[in-house]
Amino acid sequence: xxxxxxxxxxxxxxxxxxxxxxxxxxxxxxxxxxxxxxxxxxxxxxxxxxxxxxxxxxxxxxxxxxxxxxxxxxxxxxxxxxxxxxxxxxxxxxxxxxxxxxxxxxxxxxxxxxxxxxxxxxxxxxxxxxxxxxxxxxxxxxxxxxxxxxxxxxxxxxxxxxxxxxxxxxxxxxxxxxxxxxxxxxxxxxxx
Length: 192
Known about the structure:
Layout: H1 2-15, H2 31-43, H3 47-62, H4 66-70, E1 72-77, E2 81-86, E3 96-101, H5 110-122, E4 132-134, E5 141-145, H6 148-161, H7 166-169, H8 174-178, H9 180-187
Antiparallel strand pairs: 1-2, 2-3, 4-5
Helix pairs in contact: 2-3, 2-5, 3-5, 3-6
């Protein structure tokens, strides 16, 4: 009888409101914050943060997901953009070629040049991924590939360095990067 009562209460709780709710969409990063992050590609005081500032810019200006950026096998810098080859992309079984605008919102392409130089210093990209996991103090890298939580931790640190309050910074995730351009286009009334 106790087991039946437990199962009944569990089923009732699931039906009456303890069901999993859909996640809210990550808010897009404000353009002034994106400009600050572009500047952090050169001015962040720790190498991992400069690298991740570049990764955030790749996600923003390439309108890509974290996984697309992390699974990059080739990076080529051109006068107009940063050309990348990704081996794992959502619902794709072949390598995907894509580009991120070099210019950025600051118009001078500094983020791309700084990212290229910082990756050279850090010995990145590796054979099958772009970024290594930072240490807990964000001073250096480990020998393991970075994951979603590492990218979000670095994003939050960058947002705080860009002047955002820590509590507000936690509202954003790496998905926020991908939403910048579509949100700007919608606000400017570009057709979908």
